[in-house]
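Structural biology now treats backbone shape like a language. To illustrate, our science desk offers a sequence and the tokens encoding its fold:
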Amino acid sequence: FHGARIITCGKEISTDGCRAKISKLMRIISGKYRGRQLKSPPSAQTRPTSDRLRETLFNVLAPRIEGARFLDLCAGTGAVGIEALSRGAEHATFVDQSRKMCSLIESNTSALGIDEREIEIVNADASDFLRRHANKERGAFDIIFFDPPYAADYEAVLSFIAEHQQQLLADEAIVVVEHYKKKDLPDEFGSLKRYRTLKQGDS
């Protein structure tokens, strides 16, 4: 048993169901890349995850970030994983099923001069990536951030993580789930147990 825990973050979403973390202006909040702006799709019509919510989340995660292996699952622009690297994470894996988003993440990390050894960008569905990673036993993650489109099947992914925690989660790992604020998730998925809920503004 890894003692893995879940933090859930409620969020507002646009009616088109697109990623909520995409906006025209995004910036890194703290760390070595503080204040640097990130590219994002100019045509995205979504409500972004606010800087304030991201800052609140990382204030909670702060004691765990230094040296962590971070998985940004359904990464969008990569802003969350890049924030983790900026604050001292050892490595970040970015996973998104959109080739366009993966190219955008590559552009953002390149513009910041992030060492290629610190990142992995994977064009894949979240469930497919987790299955391949678990089968290859490529190393566990200290923090998983999961923020899929609001209509996604959260339960299937979280249940898989719980069932394969030996391969996916380090000791005392944390899984952070960002979701539509009116969506209720179970408090437990196997050995994964919710221990905190974060809300910010409309989220």
